[in-house]
Design brief:
Layout lengths: L1 H12 L6 E10 L11 E2 L1 E14 L4 E6 L8 E4 L13 H12 L8 E7 L9 H15 L7 H14 L8 H7 L5 E6 L4 E6 L5 E7 L11 H16 L12 H7 L6 H25 L3 H17 L5 H12 L4 E7 L6 E7 L3 H16 L4 E5 L6 E2 L2
The structure holds alpha-D-galactopyranose.
The site of alpha-D-galactopyranose has 10 residues, from helix 5.
């Protein structure tokens, strides 16, 4: 893999000088969906699939970008003097956004770069291919350019760039999961305080299987920002009667007591999801710590139902994947993962049921939706790294 990337880099930009290779993972969220911008908990993990970057620092201010996933776009040139979002919204807005965000935080990048990327995460699939590119860029600026930042800083700067440069009001989960990833562990993160613990995922007789719906979506044009506003409106109503900072501060009982203060019924439904999902996440991590994977799975299933009925971010593709997964013997839990509106499901499947799962869910999906889903049996990997 690395040799192929270096060869392509050499063809495009020349092989001389200090050419380096970096990697940043993708992520999957096990439970805790649409809680990260509501001051709640999330439980994601970094994957061993992700984005590879071959890079060389330049002495001028030019930026030259090339992605092997979008070869038809060719080399895309830009400059440090012109760090504005590209209205054509191609992928270079992610590295450019991070370089811009470093500048906004007082760390101005003065030397350009030649950067070739290759990602083996399906794009736009809910496995955070964009946050992976952001963290990769931030890590290059730390390791190669020498900016004094921690991996947690890289996550926060990545989120800032996504919010302010790319116009998606995402929470911190994706960038945090990627920048702070640890092999074999999920991250139990309190998004209100950024306190976190690593929880080992030891599934002796089961695997994590991701099913990609192949329904493309972009976060910017999805209803993501609308969901966020609905939660904010519900919170503002609740704050009239109860002094909380975020929906994540409430237990289910407390929410039911003040639910009537939310003026709009749809907003109340959205807030209910945020509150209950946060509590489910806390319970799920507790169950896992006692090795109770069965309870963890049941909470994953309940998470999907809530995302389908109350938060309304699943859609026919994800529902078809998940509802068919529930029918397969040996499936411990299954739910949509990521923002929704397309993207992927995540399932915990007993080892000896994985083949049946892929066949049965795959067939049912193609029959109903008209095109195939893709399946990935994944491993939990580390955060960003320099490879060469
Ligand atoms: C996207 C966002 C995250 C999070 C999830 C939903 O992945 O980038 O911040 O809100 O959706 O849980």
């Amino acid at each position: 893999m690395q040799n192929e990337l270096l060869k392509k880099f050499g063809e495009l930009f020349g092989a001389d000088g200090d050419v380096r290779v970096y990697f940043a993972p993708g992520r999957v969220n096990m439970i805790g969906e649409h809680t990260d911008y509501n001051g709640g908990h999330v439980f994601p993990c970094a994957l061993t699939i992700g984005t590879y970057g071959v890079v060389r620092k330049r002495t001028d201010k030019k930026l030259r970008f090339y992605s092997m996933n979008f070869e038809e776009l060719g080399v895309i040139e830009s400059s440090l003097d012109d760090l504005k979002p590209d209205p054509k919204a191609d992928w270079t807005n992610y590295p450019k956004g991070v370089i811009w965000a470093f500048g906004e935080k007082g760390m101005t990048v003065t030397e350009g770069m030649d950067l070739l990327l290759y990602g083996n995460i399906p794009n736009g699939s809910g496995l955070s291919s964009s946050a992976s590119v952001e963290v990769l860029t931030g890590y290059i600026l730390k390791d190669y350019y020498g900016f004094d930042v921690t991996n947690q800083d890289i996550a926060l700067i990545g989120q800032f760039s996504e919010n302010k440069f790319n116009g998606v009001n995402c929470g911190i989960m994706d960038q945090f999961a990627i920048a702070m990833g640890k092999k074999g562990h999920a991250i139990f993160l309190d998004t209100a305080t950024l306190e976190y613990t690593y929880a080992p995922i030891e599934l002796a007789d089961a695997k994590i299987v991701i099913a990609c719906s192949n329904k493309k979506r972009g976060l910017g044009d999805s209803k993501y920002n609308e969901r966020r506003s609905q939660c904010e409106a519900a919170l503002a109503d609740i704050q009239q009667v109860c002094g909380i900072q975020a929906l994540g501060d409430l237990t289910e009982e407390q929410f039911e007591q003040c639910r009537n203060s939310i003026k709009d019924e749809v907003n109340a439904q959205r807030a209910k999801h945020a509150v209950y999902e946060n509590q489910r996440t806390i319970q799920a991590v507790e169950a896992l710590s006692k090795n109770d994977v069965a309870t963890f799975g049941k909470l994953m299933n309940a998470s999907h139902v809530s995302l389908r009925d109350d938060y309304e971010v699943t859609g026919i593709e994800l529902d078809t994947l998940v509802e068919n997964a529930w029918k397969v013997d040996g499936v411990i839990g299954s739910r949509m993962t990521g923002a929704g509106f397309g993207g992927c499901s995540v399932s915990i499947v007993k080892n000896d049921a994985v083949d049946t799962f892929i066949k049965q869910v795959g067939d049912a999906y193609e029959k109903k939706i008209g095109y195939a889903a893709d399946f990935y049996v994944v491993e939990i990997g580390d955060g960003p790294a320099r490879l060469a």
